[in-house]
Each structure stands twice: as structure tokens, then as C-alpha cells.
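User: Here's a chain of 86 residues. Predict its fold as C-alpha cells.
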Amino acid sequence: MQPYPKQPQIQTRKPVLVFLKQVGPPIVLYVDDSEVLYNELKQIMASASSAAPKLIERTAKGPVKKLCILDTQIAGLAIQEETFAT
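Assistant: Prediction complete.
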């Protein structure tokens, strides 16, 4: 008698999507706490001034390990919920 194959477990993750000016697809950042990063970047966007752009550097997990951009280049942000099997 054959045992049933192990069923994959379904998990969710919430990457932060960073939309940049003059770039089509967003940059997808996988981090431990997406809400914190989203709120940080949102605050940076709100206070960005074109007179004195600031350099932003963040670390992430996944394909993109580090992000380094000017605050004036952020066009928008989003949090996406994804499901995946482990």
C-alpha cells in the first residue's frame, strides 16, 4: 500500500512594490515586515524635495538584495499578497 504524498503547505507573503519614475515594472522587495518598509517609504515620498534629493538604501530578501534610489524617483508604492507552496 502506497502512502499518500505529502501535501504542500500554502503560505502567504507580502512584498512591497516600489514603482519608479521612468521605469515600467515595479521593483519587488521581500522583507520581514512589509508594513514597516511601506510606511517608511511612504513618509520619505511625502517629504521628498526635488531641490535636495536624498539617497535611500534598503536591504531585502529574495531576488533583489539591496535597493539604492533617490527619494525623488519613487512614483508609488503597493503591498501585494502572494500565496506559495512550501
